[in-house]
Amino acid sequence: MTDLDTSTTALRVGWPTWLRALWAHSFFYSRVWKGSITTSFLFPTLYLTAMGVGLGSLVDHHVHHVGGVRYIDFLAPGLLAGTLLQVATSESTFPVLGRIKWDRTYYAMLATPLSATDVVIGHLFWVAIRGAMVSSIFLFVMALFGCVHSWLAVFVIPLSCAAAFAFAAPTTAFAATTKSENAFPLFYRFGVIPLFLFSATFFPLEQLPQALQVFAQVTPLVHVVLLMRNLTLGTFQVGQNLFDLAYLAVLCGVGWKLANRAFKRRLVL
Predict the structure, then answer these.
(1) What are the b/e assignments for 44-64, b being 16+ CB within 10 Å?
(2) In sequence order, what are the residues at sequence separation of 6 or more whose Cβ sits closer than 8 angstroms to the Cβ of residue 126?
(3) What is the DSSP string of 36-61?
């Protein structure tokens, strides 16, 4: 039985139709996974070696501890969250516009029993799966560097799925509404990079001026960083971290609504 026959059979036995869109993404990825796995191991290793061990040794020598822990322990969860942001946005900008404008893959999907909603669900769930892949590898590298201090770190992987979904959904909505790829460099320059710099990844949030602390608290990445850090250090704080989870859930819901509406307006003629 071919892959296409398998997908058709799954649809025939009553599985959700969006699984066919998810299967298409996994099929495309099966052709390039070797290269991505290599970089997924290489990037966290280089990040943690250069910034965690190299820069971290200087920070620990002069400051002793940042946030009460070694700098590499403080930094690593933030780098993981930042990597998820980069993966989710990179999967939801040029690829989304390309499948609409250039190779028109999404229009081909709509020629099947799939709806625009199925297409966007398949895309977002695929990005969530990519988030789980990336976080699993990053967490393994963190463990090798001695940055995992609690069994609560196992919850980093499902959290990564939710975070990747939350980052990807509004980005997908933006990509589906833009007419030109020229908007993406501005999106990264004035959107993604500031989120990363003011996410409490490199230094505690309390060291920022009060106005920037307020700005950081309303951005999504800082909540993921705090959750990741508390899970890997075993310092989960019920009040603060439940608020972080609620923020992430709201972002997932709002982003999903925006992406679904954008796909329907752009793809359904």
Answers:
(1) beebbeebbeeebeebbeeee
(2) 22, 25, 26, 29, 91
(3) HHHHHHHHHHHHIIIIIIIIHHHHHH
The model scores a pTM over 0.85:
yes
- The pLDDT tens digits of the residues spanning 141-198 come to 999 988 999 999 999 999 999 999 999 999 999 999 998 899 999 999 999 998 898 8
Q: What is the DSSP string of 134-165?
A: HHHHHHHHHHHTT---SGGGGGHHHHHHHHHH
Q: Which residue in the block uniquely carries the two structure tokens 């409490």?
A: 200
Contact 81, 221 (CB under 8 A): yes
- First-to-final CA distance of the chain: 35
Could you say which DSSP state residue 208 is in? S
Torsion, Cα of 208, 58, 139, 191 (10° steps): 40
The dihedral formed by the CA atoms of 204, 207, 213 and 215, expressed in degrees to the nearest 10 = -80
Gap between the Cα atoms of 49 and 43, Å rounded = 10
DSSP 8-state symbol, 69: B
